[in-house]
Every structure is written in C-alpha cells, then in structure tokens.
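thread from #wetlab-drylab

HS: before we spend reagent money on co-crystallization trials with pyridoxal-5'-phosphate, can we at least see a predicted complex? here's what I'd submit
DV: go for it
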Amino acid sequence: MLDINKIRADFPILTQKVNGKPLVYFDNGATSQKPQVVIDAISKYYQEINANIHRGVHTLSQLATDAYETSRGKIQSHINAKFAHEVLFTSGTTHGINLVTNGFAAILKPGDEILVSALEHHSNIVPWQMLCEKTGAVLRVIPMNQEGELIMSEYDALLSNKTKIVTVNHISNALGTVNPIKYMIDKAHEVGAAILIDGAQAVPHLKPDVQELDCDFYVFSGHKICGPTGTGILYGKEAWLNKLPPYQGGGEMIKEVSFEKTTYAELPHKFEAGTPNIAGGIALGTAVDYMNEVGFNNIQQQEKELLDYGTKRLLEIEGLKIFGTAKEKTSVISFNIEGIHPYDIGTIIDKLGIAVRTGHHCAQPIMTFFNIPGTIRASFAFYNTKEEIDLMVAAVKKAQLMLS
Ligand SMILES: *Cc1c(COP(=O)(O)O)cnc(C)c1O
C-alpha cells in the first residue's frame, strides 16, 4: 500500500492554498502535478550541463547528449519498444498524431478509409480530417453505446480492405472508458490496416507494452505522467518510421544537404528536426522513473479506491448523473446535476479550493452524443485522497443549494 502522506510530500504544489482553501486538485486528466525530483531535474540540467546535443565535441554537449539518450532508453524499456530509435521525442500527443497524419498524406489514395472512434479527443479527430481533405480519404466513425463503450460488432463491420489506418484512444479523457485495444489492434491487422493508439490517458495509470500490444504507433504526453509540459513520445514500429516521410525539415534531421538534394538522417533523428526540449526530455525520463518507483500496482489500487469511493459519494447527491459507466474505466468521473450548468458548479467549487474541469473536455462529439453542453470532470491521481473527495462532495452540495 502507498504511504499517501509520503507521496504527497513529493509534490510541493499540493500544500498550496487556493482562494484561502487547501487545494484539492482533481484536474489530473488535463495535466498532472510534478514531484520535486522532476522539478529538480530541469534546474539541474540548466545549472550543470546545458549545451546543445548531438553537435559539439565538447564535454557539456556530450553530457547533455548522454542524459537525453539515457532518457530515451528509459522510455524504451518502460514501454518495451524493441529499439531505442523507435522512440521519438515530441512536444506531446498532438505533435505525435500530426507527425503520423502528415506521413500518411504520402500513402493514402482517394477512397481509402480511416477509422476513428466516437470517443476521441479533438487532437485525434482534427488531424485525420485534415488528412482526408488533403488525400480524398474517407473518415468513418466507430460508434459507442450509452455506457460510453465502443461497439465492437460495429467496428468489425466497418473494417475492410479499404481501411488503411485505425486510430483510437487507449482510455477516454472525457469518460474514463478503457478501450479493448488489443482486440482492435489484431482486427485492424487482419485487414492489413495500421493502427495508432492515443495513450495520453493510459500512461498515467498503466505501463503499456507496445510489443505485446503489437500496435504500429503509440503516442502520449509527458505532462500527464508527472513530466514537464512540451514533452511527449511517439512510438512507431521501425518499418513504419522508415516508410513515413519526415515531418519537419531543418537541422538535426539530415545526413547531407546541398541545394540539389538533401538526404535524411537515420531514425530517430529523421523525425527530430531542430533543437528539442532537452531539459524536458531528460526530466521526462525522471518522471517515468518516479512513476515506476511508486509502482503501477500501487497507483492502480489507490485510484480504484478513489473511483469507487468518489462514485458512491457523488451518487448521494440528488439529481446527479454520471456519464461514462463502462465496465472497464479509470479514475475519471464525468457528471452533471439536473437543471444546473456545469460551468456554474465549477466556478463555485473553485472558490472553495476544488479544481475540476468543466466543459466539453476537447471531445465535443461525446457531448453531442449525450445531448449535453458539457460535464464536470473530476479526474483522480494516485496522490489524491478520500478526504479530498469528501471536500469536493460537500462543495458540490453547497453549490447546488446556492444555484437551485
Ligand atoms: C490530453 C490528451 C490529448 C492531447 O494531449 P496534448 O498534451 O494536449 O498534446 C490527446 N488525447 C487524449 C486522450 C488526451 O487526454
């Protein structure tokens, strides 16, 4: 079991007061808080080894390069990628998805089909729509049911030899649904399609094994797993990364440049143009180490308790409805209270120190499906407590009284 007080002491921000009240941070789905070791890794880089990587022969450049590549290796072993060069540093999930859609522009033909799920974040919808506009490919949507689960029989029916790529999140940010991605990956491969998994909401809760999953691409952001903003990872199978053209041109991604012709660098550098977020990339490795030290079994156990307790306590509130009731879900509770706009509740409980997200959570099609303007979303991390849930429930009850 986790020593919750010890864990909380790792996160300096958690002792803050907001609007004169102790901070209750339940917006982990948007970004997680950072432990001191990650904050220290960033300042240590700037204080001790700041230099550009892969270029200089000088000592600091070598130290910075080593630290950056060590971090890539940590992430490789964390997700069990076969090769370190299959692990690309990005600025986040959005960047990773755009890198892949840009590459597929060179592959897709008019009439080819892309399958996207009804549960996606805008950043896993819009780049595919842009790709369709560019190539004449057609976007088709895997529907969901009232519980917020994707309907697998409909997925099976949509798959055909026209399907070139499937894109789906591992876990939904708006509802917390855990999707049956292993099944979806195997089915996509049966028709010869590639598949991209948006793991942005999965990596905070579990350790994906990309070889066991056998996915072609797996993307996530660093800032949702205790790492810095502006960092992320795109895992791609070597064969796919060799096949896709580079995303951005510039320094670092070339082998030789002349005005007649440029040849590209080997993986992973082909996709890492320009000076990257070196401090961030190094600190992301520290964040992954930190999460592993806490232990994903411990994380899951704590979060399951919070999910069960939070669900039970919130359902005590009259007129409260939870959206997203999948059998497999993570510690996200999306809810509304009859007759009250989610934004009004969010504003009042913020005055009481409670940080939740209100709105469409960058997933408007889900809100349209349920015919609601948005929800209040409480998303718990392993450093949250039942006492904090009690504070939220009391605050929501107070807001409900004030607003009705
Ligand atoms: C947060 C999130 C994204 C976007 O991540 P960025 O860090 O903003 O690029 C994409 N998909 C899901 C499921 C997310 O939760």
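DV: The chain has two domains: 4-30+295-403, 39-292.
HS: ok that's useful, forwarding to the group
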